[in-house]
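User: I'm curious what two different proteins look like when written out as structure tokens. Can you demonstrate?

Assistant: Sure. I'll show them one after the other, since each token string lines up with its own sequence. Here's the first protein:
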Amino acid sequence: MGIGVYGNELRLHADNPGAAVSFGTQDNAGTFTQAGRFQIGSGYALYVNGSIWANGTTYTSDERFKQNITAISSPLQKLLQINGVEYEMKVDEFSKNYFMPGRQIGLLAQNVEKIIPGAVNEKDGFKGVDYARLVPLLIESIKELNKKIETQQMQINSLLKTIPK
């Protein structure tokens, strides 16, 4: 473990390449209490155990980084298989996770994983949903539904013309 200054950069490092950097306090008995509930380098670049409050997030999406680009096949059919649910987190059973109490809405990772595996991540045997990865399916599904509505509207207009006035 080391801490130092290099140029205008404060560096905090652990000698073990697999180690995570956690912030907290330690008492005289050596008991470490994590503060802020976040770690750097614990399998993700930043791991936060609790809620995040932010003014915005940006995902890398530049076309120049991507290859083998294809349209999403059957986006609406995929979304129709995903079930939105209401639930309460097991706050007492998993107290170290700092879950928010009360009724919530969301998805079950196991359900999403069957349909869109790339939208589910796993850490320590527990699964989570990357909700942002569902947005492209929502966009393409709206387009698909809009095409159906436009086609139906043309059919309605056509039928209306056949009705005598």
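Here's a second, unrelated protein for contrast:
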Amino acid sequence: MKIIAWPAYRNKHENPYTYLLYWHMRQYGILVEEASGSNLLHQYYDIFHVHWPIEFTLKYHNHNLFTALVRSISLLGLIDWMRARGTRVVWTFHDEQPRDIPYRKLVAWLESRFMYRVDGYISLSQIGKARAEELFPILKERPNAIVPHGHYREVYSNEVSLEFARSQLEIPQDHRLIVFFGQIRPYKNVPLLIRIFRELSPDKWMLAIVGRPSTPEIQREVLELCENDPKIKLFLGLIPDKKVQIYLNASDLIVLPFQEILNSGSTLLALSFNRPVLVPRKGVMAELQAQVGKDWIRTYPGELTTEVLWETLAWVVHTPRSPQAPLDELDWSRLSWKTLEAYKLVCGLQ
């Protein structure tokens, strides 16, 4: 089976999901190629696997409306050319409609036309499948498979102790630490977490906010909320891969108080470092909690409150848990095989 993907490996440092998925296919004798205009036009493939088509067509390029329209038409034209030659198009549904993309009418137009060209799709969870078919009813007619998001244990170094990590961040060894980790965007509710922590002000607990603010406005808000509070540490900016283990291994609890969520790589990153997580009861979280266990994932309805955070601090301290979060079902070798089985389904080989 000859497979090409967009993207495959090139976005490894921004999001290693596709890199991990396709790298592990090599053990099954499959070498997935990175898509380019040249090989899409001139070579035959059994499968063209597409991730984030709207983002990579419209969001990650600085262009005007005319250029955006040309890119959209070019993508659809390439897909039509490939399908006319027998290639099957597989799409993975990662999240709901993209945020922060201009030209909303163009987004809707491109999404609708792209979905008519999809021969089969993959979702990351049962709730993701339901949401994909709600957004795009035509997908109910397409072959589909559920292949969960894998863990990150192979991506980042994990060698330092809690004591060493805390010394690097100047966290007292007799304190416990809550960490928010990830890009700081409005829907992630970081200001709410800061307000609740300051209101609660738990004894011998500290809070660290780790990540790059998406806008100057949200950075200013975070800075103002944390002003003159010695119990809150800010590490704002792009986090180098080699430092990920410092922030996560220093923590006792990862809190991700998102307003909206379908899937969450940040949750899986925390679990990959064997850190318990507090998340809203939204999206995939109930499925992931059932799989990993209530000793590793704690959920809450609605928005984060002081009561929820207070009860969670007790849960962290008093709940027994194994040294490692049970993530065997999220091993990339297993997930790559499931993805290959999905390709066979779309090609009518099963």
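A detail about the second structure: The chain has two domains: 3-150+331-346, 162-329.
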